[in-house]
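Build the 3D complex.
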Amino acid sequence: MAEPILTVDNLCVTFGHGRNRNEAVKNLSYTLGKGETLAIVGESGSGKSVSSLALLGLLPRRSAEVEEGRAHYDGRDLLALSEEHLRKLRGDRLAMIFQEPMTSLNPVLTIGRQLTEGLIEHRGMSQEKADSRAVEMIDRVGLGQPRQRLKQYPHELSGGMRQRVMIAMAMATEPDILIADEPTTALDVTVQAQILDLMRELQGEFGTSIILITHDMGVVAEMADRVVVMNKGRKVEEGRVEAIFARPAEAYTQRLLAAVPRLGGYATQPTPRTVVPEPVPVDHATSVVDARGLTKRFGGAGLLARFGIGDRGVTAMDDVGFTLAAGETLAIVGESGSGKSTTGRAVLRLIEVDKGEINIDGRDVRKLGPAGLRQARREMQMIFQDPFASLNPRISVGDIVAEPMVIHGLAKGRELKDRVEALFHRVGLTSDQIRRYPHEFSGGQRQRVCIARALAVNPKLIVADEPTSALDVSVQAQVLELLLELQQSLGLAYLFISHDMAVVEEMAHRVAVMQQGRIVEMGPRAAVLNDPRHIYTKTLLAAVPIPDPTRQRGALPKLDTTTMPRGPLAEAAPGHLVAA
Amino acid sequence: MLRFIAQRLFAAAITIWIATIAVTLLIHLVPGDPVQIMYATFQSTPEQIEATRTALGLDQPIHIQYFMYLGRLLEGDLGRTIVGNQPVLDVLLARFPATLLLTTASLAIAVIVGMSLGFFAALHRGTALDVGAMLIAIVGVSMPHFWLGLILLFFFALQLGWFPVAGSDLRSLILPALTLGLANAAVLARLTRSAMIDIFDQDFVRTAHAKGLPRTLVLYRHALRAGLVPIVALLGFQFAYLMGGAIVVENVFAWNGVGRLAIEAVFARDYPLIQGFILFFATIVVCVSVIIDVAYAFLDPRIRYG
Amino acid sequence: MAAQVEPVSASAADLGTGSFWWALVKSPSGAIGLVIVAVLVIAAIGAPWIAPFDPLRMAAGPRLQPPTLTHWFGTDDFGRDLFSRIVHGARLTLMIGTIAVGISLTAGLLLGLIAGYAAGWTERVLMRLVDVLFSFTEIVIALACLAILGVGLTNAMIAIGIASIPFYARITHSVVLVERSKPYFEAAVAGGAGHLRLIFRHLLPNVVPTLIVVGTLGISTAVLAAAGLSFLGLGAQPPQPEWGFMLSSSRDLISRAPWMMFFPGIAIAVTVLGFNLLGDGIREVLDPRQRQR
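Done.
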């Protein structure tokens, strides 16, 4: 191991007092070597962020207290330094970047100002010198037009661009240590790959030691030299990245690794894995969904837009069409702005499309009146991404699950109670939980309630909009397994929306890739995942971090979204359609 | 930004237009015969009553009435008061400036005292200073401002004799302005504190700290500057509220603004004057709102550079 | 006018009634507010038994007498006992506050719910009207109502009620907007729920916590407004023992009888303070996020 630059010894951080006391970090010790990348991994509540904020003295003074511990850096104990001394190190020798690029920059100050103020403060540079250094850094992080950037405001840049600015700000003083707290979690996977590449480049150039905080094992495998695993405030395991992945010593680490969906594991299989003894096969003869020519545009300045003046709005769906058979899962993959969520809602007519046909079970639901639509809604249900906002906080979960049955008059009284209870058991919850309220459940449990609600009317189709993105990795795996099990016992069709290729690989029979409102590739899973034909799909697949430190992610193809083919879909191989 | 300003001007115009409609309808909501009621406390001849009825167009269908009113409005004719038979416009113009002066002075006091207090409290959030400041604020918010006026009158004018009890010069402005200003300062203190605490919790403030910037720099260049945006947005509403408060305070201090006029008009059911007053009031409020909105557009780069 | 109120997060712990009251008592503002309001209610209900004299009886004591052991708050220019008048005034005050808020809350709630739920043109038109009314400011609307209806305490109550409708409509509307965009609402739509169910089972219960806070704070605003109108002579008429009116009668007698100005003002201030603290306390209990402030 390289010579240590930071040694953390027995760090303990608590929040609150008396009954509200919460030990966020307990007896944490680790070492960071010079020039190396140390990943601190854990799920939410593990204390990974808190420990790093404590090092830099950024914890809220009123509620948090560093009770014990030492952090040796450059011959000093960071935790014992006065605020004034620590402040001089922060932003100069010790830098930090955060998770949310959209809110981490001050919206009322120019990029230039925010880039240069640190240099002026710590290095005593004049405004001109600081400006030139800022221009250098903007160039270095791959943002074009550096001179103009200085005068721009954050709202003029995208998320990925803002994160590059954050990196430029952090690296401008060539710090010894960079702490990156989930730097790419909020970014699309292709942008994530670019940012991670950038961080590695800069590390190589400046010799910075990086503490990378993340929950994504793929990112860990790609970036880290050594790993510290945390759970509920304690360190569970520490070691070289290859050792941790190949031979995890602790049970928690093993569970964590086992739960991570790995891209490539099932890719060659024609169907997702079977989880029940006698699965209901896909019935290609029965078409549950047959969508054609769906188009939807949002926004635009009302009347003026019709005359071509002013804001023309956003195209969410552009001539989208697909089919879905009974018992089958069609996964719609895409990054933010691809229109995949809009598509899911459009199928259920939660949003009205401008043009197109949506045939559910043979009938065009667009043509239905209120009564017909209500009938049709028995055939299709939805589960959402945010488990916390998906349940009405004022109604008991039992009533929530019962409501669809009540609305459609499917059961009453005793029978209703029995059916609710059966549904709860079906999704892995217990009878005594029926009368509780949503806030008493965890994220994973709430998602199960949502699934129970969706199943209540015995639908043929369930649209699942990123159902596991907001859940911890270990819980994700359980929910996905439940969904697979339900599909294979009940013959449900899923329209599964996701941005996570690994999850798609686990669930899908067929895959459709969307970009900016258009489907650019669609076909059987084996075809799209193993033999992608469209450059966007290739980029998406290449960008996914592989949770295996011995394998390198392939180089990203040079993708220009404005020039890539977006025409009508043509058949490149049986069932495999690619935009021309 | 131009689009933003255009939208605001358009909305302002619509508001004023609807105000004219509402004001015309006002008379018709009166149970009974409005003209009789207007003259109830006067000696008048049936000819006078009929003349007024014709002049106000009350014998015509309502849409004709409205166009008549609108037409006269555009010529600057707001009708004549029942009491004293004077041109409404002249009467209002004579008194509104005093009210505007009082309102502006009060706003200045409220902003200086209230925002400093709120900012100070937010800065020392959770400490005794914060609790103390907010205690003062909540007491201030609970006190009726006319009562505060009476107390100030009692101490400073009557007991100590520092200020006159009534009058219309600058010296007599001080007590009423202090009354209205301090009462409103309490409200602003709470709002400012809330807005600043929100800002302090923002990610970009954490970023500024992480860069090792000195605390004062983070406070003024980052937090305060960003906080100005929501706070300025509040000020437009405060001005309207203060103008309303001025109506009451003027009565405590016999300040010769439009407030006393309005009260007398309501008592006397002097409808032309009431109509004119409402229209005037609404127009001023709307104009000030637009000015504040434009200031807001300047301060927020997201609007300024779209 | 109550300060801008943020919608209360409905995802806070849904407390049962028992634990709600307990939590309220534990918070400092809630406790003090509760005590003050309780005292007020007792005074209002028990006025005939608590007040030593008949509030309307003139020459109950010598005129313009400062506070003594018989007349705790002194007497006014007609020789009426001030303490009795103030205690009876509590009844008027509570009545005004609650009825005025009742009117504005109900109407504002309906407006905001309909506008927020219907969306589209209905929403735009309704909220534009609300905005216009809002820009007149409450006092002007109240004056306009009084001009139409005539002066008097009941009319003042109605006027204040009407004047505050835009405020409650706006708050309801903004909460509905937030709730309408949450997935549980979409899920209910997907489940086939009809309009009534969506409005009353899903939207309304999530609007109520915010409205409870706002309504409580609104009572204090209504009390202040009513006192103000009575002070101007537009509300309570002689000889009603309404506090604002009592303040206006004290104006010309300030130097001779400062207690006439002092006590009614304190009564108003304490009442308003009580409801403000109670409202703040309720907000703290219903929305734990606010607790750190």
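Chain C has a mean pLDDT of 85.
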